[in-house]
Amino acid sequence: MEELDGEPTVTLIPGVNSRKHQMCFDWGPGEMLVCETSFNKKEKSEMVPSCPFIYIIRKDVDVYSQVLRKLFNESHGIFVGLQRIEEELTGKSRKSQLVRVSKNYRSVIRACMEEMHQVAIAAKDPASGRQFSSQVSILSAMELIWNLCEILFIEVAPAGPLLLHLLDWVRLHVCEVDSLSADVLGSENPSKHESFWNLVTILVLQGRLDEARQMLSKEADTSPASVGMCRIMGELMRTMPILSPGNTQTLTELELKWQHWHEECERYLQDCTFASNPHLESLCKIMLGDEAALLEQKELLSNWYHFLVTRLLYSNPTVKPIDLQYYAQSSLDLFLGGESSPEPLDNILMAAFEFDIHQVIKECSIALSNWWFVAHLTDLLDHCKLLQSHNLYFGSNMREFLLLEYASGLFAHPSLWQLGVDYFDYCPELGRVSLELHIERIPLNTEQKALKVLRICEQRQMTEQVRSICKILAMKAVRNNRLGSALSWSIRAKDAAFATLVSDRFLRDYCERGCFSDLDLIDNLGPAMMLSDRLTFLGKYREFHRVYGEKRFADAASLLLSLMTSQIAPRSFWMTLLTDALPLLEQKQVIFSAEQTYELMQCLEDLTSGRPVHGGPDTQQCQDDDIETTKVEMLRLALARNLARAIIREGSLEGS
Amino acid sequence: MEEIYAKFVSQKISKTRWQPLPPGSLQTAETFATGSWDNEENYVSLWSIGDFGNLDSDGGFEGDHQLLCDIRHHGDIMDLQFFDQERIVTASSTGCVTVFLHHPNNQTLSVNQQWTTAHYHTGPGSPSYSSAPCTGIVCNNPEIVTVGEDGRINLFRADHKEAVRTIDNADSSTLHAVTFLRTPEILTVNSIGQLKIWDFRQQGNEPSQILSLTGDRVPLHCVDRHPNQQHVVATGGQDGMLSIWDVRQGTMPVSLLKAHEAEMWEVHFHPSNPDHLFTCLKMDPFVSFHQVKLFNELLTFLSHSISNQAHVHQSVISSWLSTDPAKDRIEITSLLPSRTLSVNSLDVLGPCLVCGTDAEAIYVTRHLFS
């Protein structure tokens, strides 16, 4: 065992007093049952009334969120699509595919976040409003982490473009500036707005220099004193060399240009060009990457990773991916300044900057309340071939472990189980056994649901589960007195034993009522009849009745005889069959030939000789025996008469 | 087919139906009802795809459908039909049949009428009833016919508290769907591949006619009647087979179309353009991916009978009944992108189509034939 990564959290269950009573529990998939026992810890005499409830404790509560359900459903489609990305796709096209998938995942998170935000606003009571708001911030953090992972692990941006990606990342997640900008520009005199300089500073911090320049021109319009300064500053902003995607210049060229520009900025600062305007001077310092000046804007930067990116933008725009972690660590230290300790989110981002994927996933697993995020992110990174060598000391590899956890959570939900199936499908090692265990536990309240579950099992050749589901349904049908349905299900399950049982019920009903029920089914058994001997007998026996009804006596007679001689008919039923033969024997024309009659006699003798002699005083038994004896005697008489007629007839036919 | 709008609704959708338009109306359909299944709480919901007059950021009309109102429903919704413009009839897995009334003024739904034990099992030797899911409904104002897993057929009238006619043990297996053939005849399909025609004028528990697929007893899940030619019926089965029947002659299907390997949950003739047939089914991800690109989750079958064009005056012969495959050209178009979870229900009205899936999404398009 590895050591624990954090203290396990204590969950208090309202109503259960664990100090006074012992508790007992049982594990379930994704949930747990807890109740109080009547044991007292220290044999205390006072009887405290114990809690009469059994509690279901769910680990994965996020599964039950209405909004997150959309996330699960929509991302399921993306997940399945990702699994089918052709393995042959290599190089650039594969990478762009993976980036596209990653962006799809992020857009789903964003959509979900926006909806959650709407719900939070519309929430009636403040408590649930707070809960939704906290969900929004969790989703937002998820998207932030995902986006960074996308840049570092999937896009694998080289020096140069890397910083552009990071800038986009910061702009996307520190977005208060847009509302501020609208606020300032909407006012009557923007440059006199109290937040004017804040806005300009933020724009510079985010590297949005064009917008900052436009703002400065507004300032220049209103205060003639600073026109010159503004123009110089604007010129500096305009000339800052940046890498644009379409540009073909090399990194060295860029570095050289940037160095020149940097020196120019430095010169202006030395010249005290901006000395009369503290705002512009501070902007100039920021553009020189001055750490102290940047840290003065802590409020506007709002977090350390913004600080990191701004710092890189103005001090080392061509930072190599490998060097990121040093800058990140020092930025974090500088920004927090020993005042506060890093939060889980900070640790996760730091691990990402260190390119420690496993640490990212581990920290996320601990910090986040659901498996959705880690399962999907790990799977995507696995498709980027980043996780191959890592095997866990339990189960399969990490990807599969997380997917299994997530899918089990889905299966614990009363309606999301269908999504879980596909996740299990893509777990090569333990997915199938997990699916087998889970799918059997789905409650089947309607046949339609059962059909859906059956289809899942049949597609995966899970014969054992198919059999068990059909059996459950057949049993249910028998309990509900729906023999036809029961027979259909046992035929579908190819369950010979159960088909025999149901056939017996049909035959018993026939003996009691003298007519068949469910003829629409029995008459149309077709090849399914061969499933069990008893079912074959049922079908054939019904056929005998039909043929007899159609007055095709000869056919009926030979069918009846073959039922007995071929041993399909159960012994217990022979008497009924022989009795059925009586009217045929009594017909005017001879139906059973001499040979057939011998066979019938043979059957009758077999039946009577095998019968034990009863000596009990049971009157009911005696009465039954009497009836039986009469029947046998009648049969013997009829057989003898028929034999006589048959011999005469056959003799005369041969003679003539 | 580009303008298909998807919306995730946090509940598995079992049925989708357009609200019928007032007779003579030239509008396109705007309101539809959905029913959910397999949720802890199931709902009947009404949605509108009205434009509300506002444009979205791209300048186009916002095609998203908005929830008008919903109401809790006890049990899974197994079937759902509009009785008239205001009333919706639902079939529940609890065996209950409910009529909901829509109040357009304040956008609410209320229970109008309920038959709580329309479908039930009688246990062996015990008088106690256990409920049986009601699986199918068909409405023809003022009559409602329901069928269920108990093999029972009920005929209700909207203004009667009790069933007008009940056929117990009408079928030995589960009845899956029902449709009116021509009043008072109905047609049911069951789980052993049979179609049965019942005439309510006849007494007794026997169908007036039984049609069946040969031998293999494949369960049939859905049935729809040709809107103009009442003897032409389409059924969809568990093996994804689409069968066209002429109930006037023979006991076998006139033509069979193997659409897919998995259940066909619903089939619909287009009400005003019956050469188009719509089906929905669950697709097998493996087959669809590797072999059959054409057969997709949601198919529309489009039949052009070339031979019939020569004898236009003989248009009584439906193009669907032509048995010569060489004469018939059938086009199959897939409407939805490939997903893995089953499409449970669809409905078409004019150029509008709505369908609902187990992936908790509702898809709507208003430009079917563009």
UniProtKB/TrEMBL annotation, chain A:
Keywords: Membrane, mRNA transport, Nuclear pore complex, Nucleus, Protein transport, Translocation, Transport. One of its GO terms (molecular function) is structural constituent of nuclear pore. GO terms for biological process: lamellipodium assembly; macrophage chemotaxis; mRNA export from nucleus; nephron development; positive regulation of DNA-templated transcription; protein import into nucleus. It is found in: Nucleus, Nuclear pore complex. Pfam families: Nucleopor_Nup85. Transmembrane segments: none annotated. GO terms for cellular component: actin cytoskeleton; ciliary basal body; cytosol; kinetochore; nuclear membrane; nuclear pore outer ring; nucleoplasm. Component of the nuclear pore complex (NPC). Belongs to the nucleoporin Nup85 family. PANTHER family: FROUNT PROTEIN-RELATED (PTHR13373), NUCLEAR PORE COMPLEX PROTEIN NUP85 (PTHR13373:SF21). Functions as a component of the nuclear pore complex (NPC). This is Nuclear pore complex protein Nup85. It comes from Aotus nancymaae. The lineage of its organism: Eukaryota, Metazoa, Chordata, Craniata, Vertebrata. The gene is NUP85.
Automatic annotation (TrEMBL), chain B:
The gene is NUP43. Keywords: Nucleus, Repeat, WD repeat. The keyword Hydrolase does not apply. InterPro entries: WD40/YVTN_repeat-like_dom_sf, WD40_repeat_CS, WD40_repeat_dom_sf, WD40_rpt. WD repeats lie at residues 213-255. This is Nucleoporin 43. Gene3D superfamilies: YVTN repeat-like/Quinoprotein amine dehydrogenase. It comes from Aotus nancymaae (Ma's night monkey). It is found in: Nucleus. It holds the Pfam family WD40. Its main location: nucleus. GO terms for cellular component: cytosol; kinetochore; nuclear pore outer ring; nuclear speck.
